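Below sits the subject:

***
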Amino acid sequence: MESTLKRTWAEIDLDALAYNYEVLCRRMGPASRLMGVVKADAYGHGAVEVSRTLEELGAAYLAVSSVDEARELRGAGIRLPILQLGMTPVEQTDQLLAHQVTQAVWSEDAALAFSRAAEELGGRLTVHIKLDTGMSRLGFPCDEGRFEASREAVRRACALPGLAAEGIFTHFAVSDEDGEDSRGYTLLQYRRFDGMVRALEAEGVRFTLRHCANSGAAVGYPQLGRDLFRPGIVSYGIGHQAGLLGLRPVMALKTVIGTVRELPADTSVSYGRTYLTRQPTRAGVLPIGYADGLHRTLSNRWRVWTPCGTAPILGRICMDMCMVDLTGLPQVREGDEVEVYGPHNSVNEAAGLAGTIAYELTCAVSKRVPRVYRRNGREIARELLLRT
């Protein structure tokens, strides 16, 4: 490993990604194909290499959250269909057409705007109709009071020139949560989705691709898979449900013991003097901090994993460094690799201590942290997002 990688890096296990893909596809059955959610740089894992692997594995579609993300994939030679899940300014319709990006349409006004823009450009924009079945974010509302009005609006939208309505989808709000209330709400959302699809089909409005199953549904409601399913965080083997299926974490955030300090008893450590040594302490200084994505809220709470045992963080995490207690680990030396989180040190637990979700911690791994991609036990690619 080159010196630039010996500071802090994220190892991305593409074999784990492939394993998770196979487990999820078996769970959902052959009638439902996987749409790989690679927005936010594949939740911090690196969208290009993750997408390339999913394409090789046989995924049917990819999903992103901006045209720029789609352009990055096309520029890397990714040829799978790509769905832009969120809002795109109508002024970027030329980019959607040029890069063959499918656009989510969330209202009749949006459909009209994209229709006019596509016609002016002499193109035909592939769209997926977004239904709001209870998330209250984007989509044609499907609650009982607005169902009929939305059915008419969707029917009109699908008939607009310049648009090719390939798909229809919704998003579950609490499919990843336990309890009868959450289960009831998820099934209500599905009934609304299925009811709208059936009502439209009865009028001759048919869709090639129907999808609603996110990570939570893939784990807890595999019967809700339709033509596609969209597992996000569980594809990467993290989140509180990943363990239920035995999925493997794809990312391991690693750093090294930069140097070792011998600190007397009653010595304060780091900013704010929030930690005071109780005894002579052997402290390791690690070249990782909150600018790398290690949340400051984990100060005095998290630990790193070493083959000899875990080492708790001492004091506040700094921008570029943090300190750990090596007093009980005399075998750990300067230059040794340690795992901040990964297969030995669950990011799910770290997220719980930080009062957030695992998504935020992996997405927070910053662009100055190189990604090292491994397959069959060897490095196949590396990526540093900083301009050089």
